[in-house]
Amino acid sequence: MNEIKRHYNLSQLHTFRLPAKAESVTFLTSSEQVAQIPADAYVIGGGSNTIFLSDITRPLVCIRIKGIDVKEEAQHWRVKVGAGENWHQLVLFLNSNGIDGFENLALIPGTVGAAPVQNIGAYGRDISEFIYSVRVWDRRSKSLSNFSNEDCRFGYRDSIFKQNPMRWLILEVEFLIPKAWQPELSYGELKALEEPISAKDILDKVISIRSAKLPDPNVLPNAGSFFKNPVVSQKKFESLAARFPTIPHFNLPNNEVKLAAGWLIDNLNLKGFSIGDASVHKQQALVLVNNGKATGADVLNLAQHIKISVYDAYGIELEAEVRLLDEKGLISL
Ligand SMILES: Cc1cc2nc3c(=O)[nH]c(=O)nc-3n(C[C@H](O)[C@H](O)[C@H](O)COP(=O)(O)OP(=O)(O)OC[C@H]3O[C@@H](n4cnc5c(N)ncnc54)[C@H](O)[C@@H]3O)c2cc1C
């Protein structure tokens, strides 16, 4: 049976830990009970990419479906995982069983079911590279179906699920992981690693870099990168580079350039800037933190201040990467 809790304190269910309450939270432990979920319920996994800005009247569903099934094939490992499994624990499990490929994605908080939603990525890898299919419950047609990788329409921190937040519940993700492992060392501090190298070496390195760089949400509540890295045209980039010669950038196909939102914010000296008890993290300008007593208004005002400052300085409209919810539902900045 699904477990239903009333007047639940949401600071336990999201890593930004604002003191919001939900009228009801259903903990979904089996896909067989998915049909009982109210059509207007908002879904969460680990709440590490979601901020509850105020009390929530609409029902909440917390996905807790477990299970890992590994099958060996000639060229691949086929791994089916329940949406409620913890992402980092899955990465450790696969690595310790000699199934390599996910090591660059270690220590990303949250659940397996949320991983396809924003196509989680880090250190040069996106999870869409390994997703074979996604098992979903369609709340519109009230039926189960499987999405192929192509059906998911993955993009940079994007997918069909992110574009339609109230439609599908992800129940299980099926990964196809090539046995012919290739290390991915093209990004940031991983470039300094030298081959021959094992997946465990990369895993350890990623864990140590992330532990040193990013605030642990259990110590300093946060939701990871608050804004997406903006993508601009080559022409726009050239005009910015003329004014800011050291601006970090990454060339994309289609004559587009990805910029580092953290650099844009840091360059405006906003590290450590606070409104109420919400701050820009002192070391990571892309991460906003709750110093303990932040309110939803503090977070919104701080995010707006950053957005306006960045627009005034560079003519770039930052977009939130985190999902912001108030009593009316999802809001955009
Ligand atoms: C310290 C820190 C570091 C982070 N680093 C990274 C990083 O390097 N790369 C990266 O990509 N992300 C990163 N994140 C963001 C976050 O970890 C990921 O987005 C993660 O996938 C969120 O998982 P979750 O279960 O906590 O999602 P939630 O916050 O619970 O949900 C996120 C979204 O997915 C939807 N959702 C969740 N589960 C389901 C489901 N089963 N079915 C349908 N919809 C669902 C929710 O409705 C919501 O829209 C970081 C976050 C933190 C706090």
From TrEMBL:
Catalytic activity: UDP-N-acetyl-alpha-D-muramate + NADP(+) = UDP-N-acetyl-3-O-(1-carboxyvinyl)-alpha-D-glucosamine + NADPH + H(+)
PROSITE patterns referenced in this protein's UniProt entry, alphabetically: FAD_PCMH
Cofactor: FAD
InterPro entries: FAD-bd_PCMH, FAD-bd_PCMH-like_sf, FAD-bd_PCMH_sub1, FAD-bd_PCMH_sub2, MurB, MurB_C, MurB_C_sf, Oxid_FAD_bind_N
GO biological process, one term: cell division
Root EC class: oxidoreductase
Family under the similarity heading: Belongs to the MurB family.
Name assigned to this protein: UDP-N-acetylenolpyruvoylglucosamine reductase
Protein source organism: Pseudidiomarina andamanensis
The encoding gene: murB
